[in-house]
């Protein structure tokens, strides 16, 4: 069964479209079938196919590189049979990537082929704009569209001030508030989300509660939050993809205690778009916006059109991203050196063998 021949694939509800069908042509010719990865767990994964859900192995495409390993949201070519297995991953349209928890030189894909990143921020906890900006950089860099959702609106008398404060830290991004508990504003949130939606944010931000409200059922596990700091336990233990009743699919993610940037230069430019625009008017092209004469960014801080906090956050995230890039460059250089050493060693052994043959 194909998208082209039927006019609509059962996978259409999960995001399958004609462009994907065209890209899949050589895989169909090889006897493979399309599948979308719902969840990954210890070398196995749950997938949905044209014939329904099943469990598949990942052996042929397993990789020690976190960037190359299959993840929730991936489209894959499945080899059917008594023991189904993923034979290949389709190129990712978008990917949410952070540095690995160990902060080594590799990136880790949190979700693939995402259209909308819903950054959840709890109004029941102290507002952390730096965290919002960090997640926005991650979202913009992925190629998806970010939206900031202020949850637990029933915990505060009004949301206008918080919405304005977050909007100032999220230029060009929709900021909406809701209470998943009472249902207020959930319809507004649903209206700004489209396609494959991923919920990201710290534990206790209300991701799973919001997810249940959007799904219309108590599908996702939820947990209590500590009163003293607004933090919760990781009730979501793995990333999982679920169809939304109004169309599209939802990916819930475990709470992110820390989100390290990984190759997010473009995402930072979009997150701090007003600073980038001001920087174009600085006297010096390499202005660092610290104490240089003729700095348009510092002038904007002086006249009150730009907050000092925004510039400090910008500098902090730029430093972190540069450090991550340097680690990656060092790893790639070491890998190239190891490859050349292996080639040189093989050549020496070959020449010695040839000499003995003579």
TrEMBL record:
Residues 112-257 form the EngC GTPase domain. SUPFAM superfamilies: P-loop containing nucleoside triphosphate hydrolases (SSF52540). Its EC number is 3.6.1.-. InterPro entries: G_CP_dom, P-loop_NTPase, Ribosome_biogen_GTPase_RsgA, RsgA_GTPase_dom. Binds 1 zinc ion per subunit. Residues 104-259 form the CP-type G domain. It is found in: Cytoplasm. It is an enzyme of class 3 (hydrolase). GTP binds at residues 151-154, 201-209. One of its GO terms (biological process) is ribosomal small subunit biogenesis. The keyword Zinc applies. Pfam families: RsgA_GTPase. Keywords: Cytoplasm, GTP-binding, Hydrolase, Metal-binding, Nucleotide-binding, Ribosome biogenesis, RNA-binding, rRNA-binding, Zinc. One of several proteins that assist in the late maturation steps of the functional core of the 30S ribosomal subunit. Helps release RbfA from mature subunits. May play a role in the assembly of ribosomal proteins into the subunit. Circularly permuted GTPase that catalyzes slow GTP hydrolysis, GTPase activity is stimulated by the 30S ribosomal subunit. NCBIfam families: ribosome small subunit-dependent GTPase A (TIGR00157). Belongs to the TRAFAC class YlqF/YawG GTPase family. RsgA subfamily. Monomer. Associates with 30S ribosomal subunit, binds 16S rRNA. This is Small ribosomal subunit biogenesis GTPase RsgA. It comes from Actinomadura rubrisoli. The lineage of its organism: Bacteria, Bacillati, Actinomycetota, Actinomycetes, Streptosporangiales. The gene is rsgA.
